[in-house]
Write a structure and sequence with these properties.
By secondary structure, this protein is an alpha+beta fold. Strand 3 and strand 4 form a beta hairpin.
């Protein structure tokens, strides 16, 4: 049975795509990371800033990020970056405001950008971020 070259090429390409998709799934590549617990947020904070010990943690309701503060009043923002979390200590240039029940944090870093977190007490975190300017 002779198969046309175009069909062979199509089947080969289809097989390669399915093999790459299976490999990506096996390696757990692609899905957005989630902070499922405060302990996961602590671990991500320590990975971002070694030795950062949070006293207070505000996790996004969907686990898409978190704000953490330590005993010195520093505030760390965690947000997804690929399949991990990236963290930034907020500076006096950072700002925050509330849109409905979502806290919008502008880090004032062009490359890190803005984060949107749905927190249980967004106004308390907005005040913590504002306090950085006066520290």
């Amino acid at each position: 049975m002779d198969l046309p070259p175009a069909l062979i090429q199509f089947l080969g390409s289809l097989f390669a795509i399915l093999a790459l998709a299976a490999l990506a799934r096996w390696l757990k590549l692609g899905p957005e990371p989630r902070l499922e617990s405060d302990e996961a947020a602590r671990e991500a904070a320590d990975e971002a800033i070694s030795g950062f010990v949070p006293l207070r943690i505000g996790r996004d309701r969907d686990g898409r990020g978190a704000l953490l503060s330590d005993s010195t009043g520093r505030v760390l923002l965690l947000r997804p970056h690929g399949t991990m979390f990236a963290g930034r200590l907020l500076t006096a240039r950072a700002s925050a405001h509330i849109e409905l029940d979502v806290l919008v944090i502008d880090t004032a870093e062009r490359r890190f950008g803005t984060a949107r977190l749905t927190l249980d007490d967004p106004s308390a975190w907005m005040q913590a971020i504002a306090a950085i300017k006066h520290a």
